């Protein structure tokens, strides 16, 4: 029940709430980097609004899966209040994102990846994260039901920082979904490559969710070759290398989703999309979706509530993409702003 297709409202036009273009479709909802919501007390209710909207619309949009692109918090482990970059301790930030996604526990499977801000103290000084304390493997029974395997994190503990799931949509082949840590270590890349190569998964639709992978359309959708925020460790894999070592060689990986990048403080500077052929000659669709600098830049409201809705049509190949804000949709005075209809925000692609 995904309202993706028929809503193109502009000022002065009738607002139409999200719905599916075909009642037999199903959908994935993508939540972009939440750090701008969690770091300010005033913004934290907005993230709760977003997941509340997902909960309320899970039947209407036939939502099968929720993905989040990482940077769940702004600072993973600070014990003194920041002077400018937010007004919440790390404990409050983690409690906020935990509570927001907690609305979906037992109702929808959701897969989160870790971003650079989810490690170290302020950002990626090391590989320590509080993620595992707030999102253990047995937290959401619907996640546990589809979880196949976890890889050891940097401390040697198997956690959801690097996890593989098999999700069975209402129709079509099962999805093999990888959630990979920020700039994954070489061992993680090899683990995912070996898992994707197993004979029992060759007819699955492979999906990679990782925080940092590609740039926006204003930077020609380039895969990342140099990190703007160099991590405090040497073992890491950036976007172009991840493509060459994992995504391209795997004939079954068909989609990659990421966040992280803000090339320009505009809609276009937060999003990107490209399609390449893998080694088997199959199309791989790669999507950047971020929104953290919307709504007033890094001191603003955290991202204007933007979500991505991907509608998978019954033909088994067409995916329709829409960009929607439940924050703007709340009030009749702002409903005309609730849809973004630029070509980089509203489009479709074919899986096969």
TrEMBL record:
<feature type="domain" description="Calcineurin-like phosphoesterase">
    <location>
        <begin position="48"/>
        <end position="261"/>
    </location>
</feature>
<dbReference type="InterPro" id="IPR004843">
    <property type="entry name" value="Calcineurin-like_PHP"/>
</dbReference>
<dbReference type="GO" id="GO:0016787">
    <property type="term" value="F:hydrolase activity"/>
</dbReference>
<dbReference type="Pfam" id="PF00149">
    <property type="entry name" value="Metallophos"/>
</dbReference>
<dbReference type="InterPro" id="IPR051918">
    <property type="entry name" value="STPP_CPPED1"/>
</dbReference>
<protein>
    <submittedName>
        <fullName>3',5'-cyclic AMP phosphodiesterase CpdA</fullName>
    </submittedName>
</protein>
<dbReference type="InterPro" id="IPR029052">
    <property type="entry name" value="Metallo-depent_PP-like"/>
</dbReference>
